[in-house]
Design goal:
The structure is a single chain. By secondary structure, the chain is mostly helical. The chain has one domain. Helices cover about 70% and strands about 0% of the residues. It has 13 helices and no strands.
């Protein structure tokens, strides 16, 4: 295990050194990412200038939802960036993956270390800033249990979206081209769970509860943190199922990834 961690550290160090060779470009990338995230939240705040609340949720409460998933997704994108179908698909097309398979290093570890981009820290930082703003706008009654559970929810979201990235990457073994449907559940999913889930149609709530359980990642934990009643009438344990949804998705994705590697056939390029 320690050997794997040291190998991963070296892979990341190489990626970081290659980026800081072009400091201006890296800083512009980080600034650009920060501006995009800031504009997204600014658009959300403008909605609340017209409507004081959304389905009974104030700006601070929605910012709590938004900031948690933004920070988690930014962290996931930093760690699992190599599995992003937009990045991994060209590796399969060009035969770059074949080179990784020939090296005497675990291929999964190599993919993890293949796309560590510093600009993604901007999204994480924006999420943290918005989270602090959200806390200043809401009166969260923090207890030891809530403080302990918050990082669990965060890591669960990272695991869930990372699992989706891995599923999207693995599917390119057969499709070669990326599967656009994955983006609906990754980038689209972050937008979905940035708002209270009870504003959506009943069929959507059911789909994102029983098929793709995103409702368990952000909405139900937020109800617990903010001491808000559950308008959907879910079970009392619903706010505490985030780890099952997150790590269950990651475990299933890694199993699919191993299956894909076992049956991988090169494109011949």
């Amino acid at each position: 295990m320690w050997h794997s961690l040291e190998t991963y550290r070296r892979l990341i160090a190489v990626r970081v050194r290659s980026q800081i060779q072009y400091r201006v470009s890296t800083l512009l990338d980080i600034a650009g990412m920060a501006i995009v995230t800031g504009v997204e939240f600014g658009a959300l705040a403008m909605v609340f200038q017209r409507f004081e609340s959304i389905a009974g949720w104030t700006l601070g409460e929605v910012a709590f939802l938004y900031s948690l998933v933004t920070t988690a997704f930014g962290t996931m994108d930093l760690i699992f960036g190599g599995f992003d179908p937009d990045t991994f698909g060209p590796m399969v097309q060009r035969g770059t993956l074949d080179q990784l398979l020939l090296r005497p290093v675990n291929v999964t570890l190599q993919v993890f270390g293949s796309a560590f981009l510093l600009r993604r820290f901007a999204k994480i930082a924006q999420g943290v800033i918005i989270f602090c703003i959200a806390l200043s706008m809401t009166s969260v009654h923090w207890t030891p249990a809530k403080v302990a559970y918050l990082p669990v929810v965060f890591v669960s979201q990272v695991a869930f979206f990372g699992g989706l990235f891995i599923i999207g990457a693995t599917s390119t073994f057969w499709t070669v081209q990326r599967v656009e449907a994955i983006n609906i559940f990754t980038y689209g999913g972050t937008e979905l769970i940035s708002y209270p889930m009870h504003i959506y149609a009943k069929w959507m709530r059911r789909f994102f509860t029983y098929v793709v359980p995103m409702i368990l990642l952000n909405y139900y934990p937020a109800l617990y943190f903010l001491d808000k009643p559950d308008p959907l009438g879910g079970p009392a344990c619903a706010p505490f199922l985030a780890p099952i949804a997150g790590f269950g998705m990651l475990a299933a994705a890694l199993g699919f990834w191993r299956f894909g590697l076992k049956h991988y056939a090169s494109t011949g390029t």
